[in-house]
Write a structure and sequence with these properties.
432 residues; alpha+beta; four-stranded mixed beta sheet; 23 strands; globular
């Protein structure tokens, strides 16, 4: 167990450059297996999931040259890769996106039972299985594994998702890009990281239409070429640092090359008395006095933050706004329309002295502005829940401990170093 010690009560101030979005980086890394030509990627973050994928590529026999100081990665998945070494990395949901390129190269892939990511409630693999079968793969169950096999390559298909899943959309595109003929996906996910992923594939030569919408048309090509690609700023991380500055009574200027993704997020910040200002490629969060929940114009209802597939507020950012709600004077409802049971960590808020009421597996009411005290709390294996707990601890005078905070390292490189440079007093410690 890796814990975070937080000595709070210090306003965070300064400038920060966000890293790339892991939800774009990981599928792009998986997609590189579709080409035999060299690929160069810039701004690759030093996070645990990236290291797992690079180890996987190295075991396959790929040439991997990673400079984490500069963030530059040179990859070459040439001939002679070893299919016997294709054991998917464990503990990361993105492993499932290695299946299409492995099927394309070797005609076989094995999905082990413990290939998982954050504990965000029920996360089924059935939609992925349906996609693989739609493209002509055969799926069988063996001991402790699901085996997917493919003869003769992918065949083009039309598919309609019952839910706009990000990873299922990306798996569809990976299959379709290498398939014979034209494929269409209806009810596709359209998150910014899905758009970035599709942009990468198009630069490799994939023919994809409808990016940013709910219907994707993909014309398969005979081969994809190598490419040089630079990842964009992670809008999740931009919003997270803005919230940290607001929570601690400071002000953090965050470089933001993704301002077009912020109108709804800006309005959501405003519900808690936070004004977000975007100027000259930088974003800042400003508070006039104190955090306070804005009363809705319609009487007798609660201010709400509803998280759902893009273009709603992303479910990944809901814990950040819950943390703001804990500090803001007033009441607010938080609604996770994506994952069952993803709000079960609300009991940890009470250890700080916060008042939160879980209505059902999807909705949480926070009665904010209560006096808070330092505490020892435990994070579930969810990246931004660990960060939300840190944010609350950082806003309280005294020492708090976030147990099992290691999930942060899956998405945020140099997390502690960046925070201490902004005036925090936080450190990693090994736990039992």
């Amino acid at each position: 167990m890796t814990n975070l010690i937080v000595r709070g009560g210090r306003p965070l101030r300064g400038e920060i450059t966000p890293s790339a979005n892991k939800n774009a980086v990981l599928p792009v890394l998986c997609a590189t297996l579709l080409t035999d030509e060299p690929v160069v990627l810039h701004r690759v973050p030093d996070i645990t999931d990236v290291r797992k994928l690079l180890d996987f590529f190295g075991n396959l026999g790929s040439r991997v040259e990673m400079d984490f100081e500069t963030g530059t990665l040179r990859l070459h998945h040439g001939a002679g890769l070893d299919p016997k070494a294709a054991h998917l990395p464990l503990g990361m949901r993105s492993s499932i996106m290695l299946i299409p390129p492995l099927l394309h190269r070797f005609g076989r892939a094995s999905l082990e039972e413990d290939v998982t990511g954050c504990t965000l409630g029920s996360r089924e693999i059935d939609p992925h299985i349906e996609v693989f079968r739609a493209f002509g793969a055969e799926v069988t169950s063996e001991r402790a594994a699901t085996v997917i096999s493919l003869e003769g390559g992918f065949s083009a298909t039309r598919h309609w998702l019952d839910y706009a899943s990000v990873t299922t959309t990306e798996n569809f595109v990976l299959c379709a890009a290498a398939a014979k003929g034209a494929s269409r996906l209806t009810n596709a996910a359209c998150e910014p990281h899905v758009q970035e992923f599709c942009d990468f594939l198009r630069r490799m030569g994939a023919r994809i239409e409808g990016v940013g919408g709910s219907r994707l048309d993909v014309e398969g090509v005979s081969g994809l070429r190598g490419v040089e690609f630079t990842f964009a700023d992670d809008f999740h991380e931009v919003a997270t640092f803005l919230a940290m500055g607001a929570m601690t009574g400071g002000e953090i200027a965050v470089r933001n090359g993704s301002v077009e993704q912020f109108p709804l997020l800006d309005r959501t910040f405003a519900k808690f008395g936070v004004e977000v200002i975007h100027e000259n490629g930088w974003s800042r969060a400003h508070i006039d006095g104190r955090l306070k929940v804005r009363e809705p114009f319609t009487s007798n209802i609660l201010t709400k933050v509803e998280a759902a597939p893009w273009p709603y507020v992303p479910a990944d950012l809901l814990p950040i706004f819950i943390a703001l709600g804990v500090r803001a004077e007033g009441q607010a409802m938080f609604w996770n329309k994506v994952y069952d049971g993803a709000l079960g960590w609300h009991a940890e808020l009470g250890k700080f002295g916060a008042h939160a009421l879980l209505c059902d597996p999807h909705r949480l009411i926070v009665f904010g502005g209560k006096p808070l005290t330092p505490a020892k709390v435990e994070s579930p294996y969810i990246i931004r829940v660990a960060i939300a707990l840190f944010m609350i601890a950082a806003s309280i005078d005294g020492e708090s401990t976030i147990l099992n905070a290691a999930p942060i390292q899956r998405a945020h490189p140099r997390f502690v170093e960046n925070l201490n440079a902004l005036g925090a007093d936080v450190s990693w410690v090994a736990g039992d």
